[in-house]
Each structure stands twice: as structure tokens, then as C-alpha cells.
Amino acid sequence: MKKIIISTLLVAAGAVSLFQITNKMEEPTPNFGFKNFYAITLGYDKSMSEKTIKAAVIDSYFREVVANGKIVRWNKLSFPLRVYIQDSADMPSYYREVVMRAYQSWERASEGLVRFTFVETPEEAQMKCYFTNKDDGKKSIGSQAFSLNGNTITDSVITFKLHNEKNQVQDSKQLFSSALQEIGRSLGLTGKSPSIYDVMYPIGIKFNTEITARDLKTLALIYSVVPDVTDVAPTQEEKTQMFTVNEILATLNVPIDDETPDLDAVKANDIATGLALAEQYRKRAEYDKAAQEYQAVAQMKTDLRSKSEVYYEVAVMYLDAEEFDKAKSCAEIACATDMNDKTIILPALIDYYMKRSNSAIEQLDTILQQNPYNKHAYKLLCQIYREKHHENLLNATIRKYGPTAGDMEE
């Protein structure tokens, strides 16, 4: 990739926000695997440095989870949890297998932080999964609810729709994605991730089948704090080994929250404050101000991959706001900063949002021809074909790229 300087206006006439990428090319940091880079046992405790905890909070959606109020999660000593998944003659045989795979994916990805065992009756289960014909008027395939006795979890019930809005059986991949998200909620991930690729991203027609590092960091943080609601209350001695929510958030030392009245008066001199300020502007739909703060964060980052991730988030922000021209500008910057498997599909993703499916398909097919291992392009292309009911093209894509770009859940 050529060394370039890009200056792109993020807003139309009257724009005040300008991203600039310097021509100093930096080497990206190594992309370590989860086990090497985060926590060996996928968890955080008081033996770890404040810097480690702060980095985890910044690169997670822990704050979105705790913003919902109480921490509701299982006692770590209760794992493996007993899981019942309904299986009956009036439902497709693959339904149960798909949901079981979703549980196994959480166990595998979390390196055993959460574990499950499957039982045959609901009476002996702590987590129960059912399929129903009842229409609740919502577009989502699944829903989850805890049963509580005061501050004690008695069980968690996940309900999936037996059929979609066209009275057809559920697509296995969409069911798998829904199961991942509802299991995440059942584990305590009650917040919504702002990142489009995370399992807990609240997006309607899209679906994710890969548990991300952000999902896992958030899960690990939730299981490192004292719960407000749980199945077995921790002892006082056990509590001394855990953080409080305030202790976790204090590592950020960010004086910004939903109650901050004048965001314009806040000066962000570090990455944590800058991200918090950008997120608040984003929540308040002041997208151009959020973009300026994201820009400042990108300037503080020291490697191209990290800078690219920031620009990627700005592109997604404008995409969610349906400000497509600005999303395109940011996508160009993200790609120019660090062309990787995720940023390269942004233009196609934008076309997909704009209902330009043919253009998106053409771009994704080109990307896969050049790199048949790009799982992000593969997933989006399969998704488009599914939604357009192009079964022949879908099957051809799976046959051609599934062995290279697919994963265990394809």
C-alpha cells in the first residue's frame, strides 16, 4: 500500500471535522491469539495491574452492560450449568443441534470460563431452551428471561420462534446467531455492543456467528465483579477476590457519563476520556462531534491497526445513522490506514445497507477471489444470498469458499 496523506471531510457543507492520516508508515502490532494477548485463564482479578484492567474495559462493552443496572450472572462455581434443549417431533431435527453448537461455541471460545452439560428434562436444568409458535410481534428469533427469587437466579429460559414471519422453518445460521446472543444474555451480557461484528450487537436483519475478543473481554470482566443477582451468593472471602463495578470503572478515571450536562466543556487528554466523550456524543446523536473525538483518539494510537479500528468505528457510526456519504469517507480512511480482512469489506457493507446488493455482491466476490480466506467477506456474501433467496448462488459460494473462509458454524 502506498504511503499517502488522506484528508477527507466527514461532513457536508459547513463541515468542521477533518481526519488526517500522516504519511509516516508504522508497523502494525502483532495480532496475538486470545490466549496469549488477553488473560491466560480468561479472567481478571486483583493481582492484575490497573493498566491491564483499563485496557480490557476500553476494548469491551462492559460499560454498556453495567449501564443497565444490576450485574446478573451465575456463580463461577456453578459451572458447568445444566442445559435442557427442547426436542420434539413437530420441529426440525437440526434445531436442537444448532442451539447445542452455540453453547459449545461459548464454552470453547471462553476457554472453559463458562461450561455446560446437557440434560434430558427441564426439571433438572438451570438453562432451558424452548421452541414455540407463539408470535410476540417482534422480529427477533429468540428471547431470554431469568426467573428470580429475590436476588437469586432460579433458572434462565430462552425461547425461540419455531417459524419465521413467512411461516417457514428458521434458517440454521440465523438460528445459530440468535442462540449465541440469547446465551450471551443468559450468561450476563445484558448490554448492547456498539460494534457491528460482536455477538451482542443489536441489529435486526444481520446475524453474527463468531464470538469476538470484545465479547470475551466483556464476559470475563462481568465474571470478575461482585454480582448483584446470582444463583449462589459468593462468600465474603470470595468477594474480596472480586472487583466492584466502581473499582473497574475507576481505572478509566473518566468524568463523563450520561448525566454529564456540558460535553463541550470536557477536555480529553487520554484515550479513555476521548472514547468516553465520543461515545456520549454518539448516544446523543451528535455524530460530527463524536467523529472529532474519535479523530483525536486515532491520533493518540501508536500503530496503524489500532488507528484503523477507530476509523472503522466512525464508519459504522455513520452507517447506523444512515449518513452514507460520511460512512463512505470514513471507510476509505479505515482501508487506507490498514487494509485488512475487516476494513476491506466496508464499501460492500455500505452498499448492502443502501440496498445496492448487486454492487455489494460484485465487490465481495472480487475480495474472495483475491483472498479466499476472508471470512468477513464470505459471511456477508452468504447473508446477501440467503436474504435474496438465491439458493443456487449460496450453495455455490459455500462449496467454493466454505473450506477456506468458513468456520465451524457455517
Average residue pLDDT: 81
What's the β-strand tally?
A: 7
Instruction: Assess the beta-strand content as a share of residues.
Output: 5-15%
Weakly predicted, low-confidence segments? 1-41
Describe the model:
- The chain has 410 residues and is α/β, with parallel strands linked by helices.
- The protein has 16 helices and 7 strands.
- Strands 4-3-5-7-6 form a 5-stranded mixed beta sheet, covered by helices on one side.
- A hairpin with a 2-residue loop joins strand 6 and strand 7 (152-161).
- Helix 10 (287-300) runs antiparallel to helix 11 (304-320), helix 13 (346-353) runs antiparallel to helix 14 and helix 14 (357-370) runs antiparallel to helix 15 (375-387).
- The longest helix is centred in the C-terminal third of the chain and has 17 residues, at 304-320.
- It starts with 5 loop residues before the first strand and ends in a 5-residue tail after the last helix.
- Mean pLDDT is 81; it is low at 1-41.
Describe this structure in a few short sentences.
With 410 residues, the chain is of the alpha/beta class.
Keywords:
410 residues; alpha/beta; Collagenase (Catalytic Domain); five-stranded mixed beta sheet; two-stranded antiparallel sheet; 16 helices; 7 strands; globular
